[in-house]
Write a structure and sequence with these properties.
The chain is of the alpha/beta class. It starts with 6 loop residues before the first strand and ends with a strand. Helix 3 packs parallel to helix 5. 37% of the residues lie in helices and 21% in strands. The strands form two sheets. It has a six-stranded parallel sheet with strand order 3-4-5-6-7-8. A two-stranded antiparallel sheet has the order 1-2.
């Protein structure tokens, strides 16, 4: 299922597809069961540990992912937007490690489970994952997600954005600076 993009990035700033600059500040959601996200046109960053999504290697918590989908659908009804921020269990500097591959697979699996949620506009590039190591990790994650989620934009702090620029404009040009 391919969704139309709602946002685009120009010069690392977020814009609507109509070309209007979007001023936003994320409101972190750490618990989808108790925190409501209901302020129209607000941006929420759903923060979740990799262990919550993937309690064991390649074994995903489908019950949690179903709740995440329901949560996003409720947000959709109220006109809110979200980004997914998965905090890795562990991080390494190299791109070709089991830890990196596991993290990318986890984020990819989670986004597939919520693929019909139009208000999930992208993924937050976690400092713990993206800041350490080479730019290839950022490129790998974006490339993997882009296969099914070409509508996504990515969000990152300044240190990760500097790292993404080393991967090339095709990556850094899709990242909105926080």
């Amino acid at each position: 299922m391919k969704l139309d993009p709602k946002f685009e990035v120009k010069d690392n700033q977020l814009y609507t597809i109509a070309g209007e600059k979007v001023e936003f500040k994320f409101v972190d959601v750490n618990d989808i069961e108790s925190q409501k996200a209901d302020e129209k046109n607000s941006f929420y960053c759903i923060v979740v540990d990799q262990k919550t999504i993937e309690p064991e290697a390649e074994c995903y918590n489908e019950e949690y992912l179903a709740k995440l989908r329901d949560y996003l659908k409720e947000m959709e009804e109220t006109g809110c937007y979200a980004a997914l921020h998965v905090i890795p269990e562990s991080a390494t500097e190299a791109c070709d490690t089991p830890e990196t591959e596991s993290y990318v697979a986890c984020v990819k699996h989670a986004t597939r489970r919520v693929k019909d949620c139009e208000n999930l506009c992208g993924v937050y590039l976690c400092d713990k994952f993206a800041k350490d190591g080479d730019a290839a990790k950022i490129a790998l994650l974006i490339d993997e997600l882009n296969v099914k989620h070409g509508q996504y934009v990515y969000f990152a702090g300044s240190e990760v954005l500097v790292k993404a620029k080393k991967a090339g404009e095709e990556y850094s040009g899709r990242i909105a600076a926080l």
